[in-house]
Amino acid sequence: MVATLPDLLRLLVVPVFAWAALRDVRTRRLPNRLWPPLYAFGAVLLAWEAVSLWPFAGLEGRLFLVRAAISLLFVVPLGYAFWYVGAFGGADAKALIALAVVFPRFPTYEVGGVALPLVGTDLGVFSLTVLTNAVLLGLAYPVGLAVVNLARGVVSPSMFLARPVATGSLPDRHGRLFEDPDGPTRSGLDLDALRMYLRWRGVALADLREDPDRLRDPASVDETFDPTDGATHVGPRTDGGAAADTGASGQDVPSDVDDPWAAERFLAEIDRGAYGTDAATLRGGLAVVAREDRVLVSPGMPFVVPMAVGLGVSLTFGDVLFALLGAVGLV
């Protein structure tokens, strides 16, 4: 493999993103400490190349400045903007910012006489290529979900967005319910919020399903516990019950007969939000999981996953969108 030393060092980021993708699929949580070292690493490489090209008199130096400026002044704010409007999670935005800092321009590697990436772009901003490749991969996810549903004999308008699963498996799943008592909905209860509620009450999902009438009564809520952040890997294996010894007793809040499931009390007691869940959404989700043996779940896909795959595709094949546009004569 023939490449500049900074470009060779950039390959160290690939296993980091692979690890992040695997962890995000398993837990939907990435540690904040993961990103600052990547920012610092990218900044060092960027400074290294800037010093080697100083005073940027030739074409190569000017192109470096333009591409670095686009990556840092456009892609970085773009990641923040996606997070701000809710299109990205916090980890997704931080991952895109890391890519913008580490990969402002196309790296070049020669393997067996072949120069990689195979397909470049006129603009030459590599972080944009990773982003567009990731978006294309993300768009393929609903198609894959529909194929899985079709193979299982599930044909419905929601087959591109959700799949039926056993209700008892929800404590180990990520995503959100794709239904409420009125039918399919794209704004169903987040499963992390469901876990938070169960841990707050100190009950397991099986307990709720076994005796929903009693647990629907807000007077049945006595001592409450630490809801955690709803992650599947936090606390004991169960989704409730045994988690009680990790928390602290809640406030002595009078029960309200107009507060089924004590949903308003739960949201009032916890010291943080529950993934945008309001009392009505929580009650609707609890009603569904209490009565149904199978429910529709929209599993979602953390964008760090297509970013990690997109990085690998970008380093080898190159820009997929540019290749497609070239194939139809648009570039």
Q: What share of residues are in beta strands?
A: 5-15%
* Beginning-to-end CA distance, first to last residue: 30 Å
Question: What integer is the average pLDDT?
Answer: 89
Based on the structure given, which CATH architecture of the largest domain is correct? Up-down Bundle
Unreliable stretches, pLDDT < 50, 5 or more residues? 235-256
Give the overall silhouette: elongated
> According to CATH, what is the topology of the largest domain?
Four Helix Bundle (Hemerythrin (Met), subunit A)
Helix content: 40-55%
Number of helices: 13
Number of domain modules: 2
Task: Characterize the biggest β-sheet.
Answer: 3 strands, antiparallel
Q: Return Rg in Å.
A: 24 Å
In spatial order, strands of the major sheet run 3-7-4
* CATH uppermost class of the largest domain: Mainly Alpha
**Would you count the extended β strands for me?**
7
